[in-house]
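Here is a tokenized protein:
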Amino acid sequence: MAGAAKILVVGPMGVGKTTLIGTVSEIKPLSTEATMSQAGARLDTKVRPSKTTTTVALDFGRITLGGELVLYLFGTPGQQRFLPAWKDLARGALGALALVDTRDLEASFDAIGHLEDLDVPFSVAVNAFPDSKPHSEDDLRSALDLLPHTPLVICDAREHQSSVQALISLVSHLIETLTEAS
């Protein structure tokens, strides 16, 4: 497949969206990370005490797969209050990679639900944090209420090849979905 595609990278705050885009981008990624404020702390779900910044608009990166397909990656903010930005970022998106964290699967429900509401095809990548416990694919599918055809992969957002494989899984799913619709 040749051309270009807009891809969203979504998930709750602290799941690794900024990290994944920075890991795979062949250009210097654009990041709108800002220091978390006291005002935001009242609104946002607390993640780790060590997390001091958060995306406030978007992250942007670019990767070329197979020398022919350019993916423009748009990372969404993870907080509920930025949902209007999601709707704008979703315009023209071919699909989305939903990152989840098994240490707090419940936090991912909103992100997956928003993709379904926006009718954006997606795959799910479980970001393997060092202190997360392994779960079977069946348990993860059940916990996230995923349809059988929704791709589910394990990745480490800090590792280039692992993150690229998660994106390839999404693109393969999108191609298959588009082929079936034709």
